[in-house]
Structures are given as structure tokens and as C-alpha cells.
Amino acid sequence: MSVNQVSASQMSVSRAPGETRLRIRAAGEEDLPHIVRLDAEAFPSDPYPYFVLRQLLASFPDFVFVVADGEDLVGYVLSTPPNAAHSWILSLGITPGLRGQGLGRQLMTRILSRLRAESVHSVSLSVEPGNDTAVALYRSLGFLPDPGGPRPDYFGPGAHRLLMTLSL
Ligand SMILES: CC(C)(COP(=O)(O)OP(=O)(O)OC[C@H]1O[C@@H](n2cnc3c(N)ncnc32)[C@H](O)[C@@H]1OP(=O)(O)O)[C@@H](O)C(=O)NCCC(=O)NCCS
Question: What's the pLDDT tens digit per position in 42-83?
Fold first, then answer.
């Protein structure tokens, strides 16, 4: 499988002739059940509850993008809209069978382009300190970790998180 960036708003992944093509598009309310499933696949021990994802999708509809495989979804990213020119990436996940093929990077590129269009100056996110794949992806996009290192108990007892920020 090869990944080709077609434009800032659309990305396709070529497969054998006749197979479906993946594309990145804005999410809609009808995508909620898929996003709930993707979130549980990405964060099996601590997924967002259904009601939280519904409210995020309802509150920030212009800041949720998905990778669509026909009717199915295989990845998603969501951020907050800017507040004082600053946004947070709240979630990023690719279905396990399609990881390592450039889709996570494409989704991040898409949401960052959306945020740039909103004149966002900086973007933050939190990541589990041992999540080497995600940390490597964010570093390669220019995110810098908090100089103080991971924040202990950031998401509650034992749930340490590294905060990373990108200046746009
Ligand atoms: C993190 C995640 C979104 C990355 O998506 P992906 O589609 O697998 O990543 P990509 O193929 O776009 O790779 C992007 C970069 O990630 C890093 N990466 C990808 N796979 C990796 C691996 N197996 N080991 C180390 N780094 C890896 C590399 O830096 C890679 O850049 P490169 O292609 O230039 O080498 C995906 O692994 C995932 O859904 N993980 C579970 C949920 C999660 O951890 N989300 C982030 C929480 S903050």
C-alpha cells in the first residue's frame, strides 16, 4: 500500500485495482459510533465515554477529521477550536491493522493545516511518556516536550503525561 497526499483536504491510499480508497474528510454526527469504536481500539484501558465523544463532536464539528474506508472509518483526530490562538489535540487514533503506514501523520498534517487556517499560534497535546510511536510522530512534526519532563498524575493517580507543544 502506498500513501499519496492529494491535497490538504483529501488524501488517498492506493490499493489493488477495484479496492476502496481511503480518504481523509471532516467528520459528521453519523460517524460517532465509528469514532467511539476507534477510540476504544486506540485507548483500550481508558477510552473516552460515548457521551464525551458525542459532546466533543457536537461542540467542535469543524475540528474532527476521519480516515474513511468506504462506509467504515479507520482513523480519527480531534482538536479544540482555538482559544486565544491556542488549541489542544485531544485525540488521535488509527485502527491497529493500518498503523505504521503514514495515516497518523496525514491526520496530524490535516488538523494542523486546519488550525493554521484559524490563525492558531500554538498547539498542545498530552501523551503517555512511554508511547514512543506517538512521541516520535509529534517530535517529527515539530512538537517540543515540556522541559520539565512528564507531569506526574496529570490525568489522575499514576496517569503521568508528557505535554508537548508546537508553535505554528
Ligand atoms: C500513534 C498513532 C496514531 C500513529 O499513527 P500511525 O499511522 O501508526 O503512524 P504513521 O505511520 O503516520 O507514522 C508516523 C510516525 O510515527 C512513528 N512511528 C510509526 N510507527 C512506529 C513504530 N512502530 N515504532 C516507532 N515509531 C513509529 C514514526 O516517527 C513515524 O514517522 P516515519 O513514518 O517518518 O518513520 C497510532 O500508532 C495509534 O493509533 N496508536 C494508538 C493510539 C495512540 O497512541 N494515539 C496517540 C495518543 S497521544
Answer: 999 999 999 999 999 999 999 999 999 988 999 999 999 999
Between the alpha carbon of residue 134 and those of residues 15, 37, 87, 100, the distances in Å are: 25, 20, 18, 11
CA distance 82 to 85: 5
Distance 133 CA to ligand 1 centre (A): 5
* Residues in contact with 115: Cβ distance below 8 Å, sequence separation at least 6, in sequence order: 63, 79, 82, 87, 123, 168
- Residue 11 confidence class, pLDDT cut points 50, 70, 90: low
Q: Could you tell me which residues are beta bridge partners of residue 165?
A: 124, 144
Best CATH choice for the domain 2-119 from the list 3.40.50.1820, 3.50.30.80, 3.40.1390.30, 3.40.630.30: 3.40.630.30
Nearest to 42 by CA among 86, 80, 91: 91
Which of 133, 135, 155 gets mutated to test ligand 1 (max ligand atoms within 8 A of its CB)?
A: 133
Say how far apart CA 143 and CA 125 lie, in whole Å: 9
